[in-house]
User: What shape does this take?
Amino acid sequence: MTISILSLARNDLKEIHEYLSAFGEVQPTKFRASFEKFCIQVIDMPYMFSQYENTIYKKAVIAYDYLILYQIDENKGIIKIYRVLHGKRHIEPLLD
Assistant: This one.
C-alpha cells in the first residue's frame, strides 16, 4: 500500500502547522511525528482504525485530537487521506 494525501488534506496539514507554530517549535514537531507514525501504521494495517460515524471514511486520532479521515482503495493499493481536522470541529459539512 502507498499513501496519497489529497489536496484538501495537504491544506489542512499546512494550516495545522501554521496554527501550532504559534505555540513554539515543540507542538508542530510532535504533530508531525504523530502524523508520520500514523502513515507507517496504516500502510502496514490499513483496517486497524474504525469507521467514522455514518460516513465512508475510516478515522484515526493523532496528536492534539486531530482526526485523519481516509479511504482504502484495495484495487490500486492506495490509502487516500481526505482530511485532517480537529475533532472538536463540526466535521460533517467539511466532508462533501
Remarks:
- The radius of gyration is 13 Å.
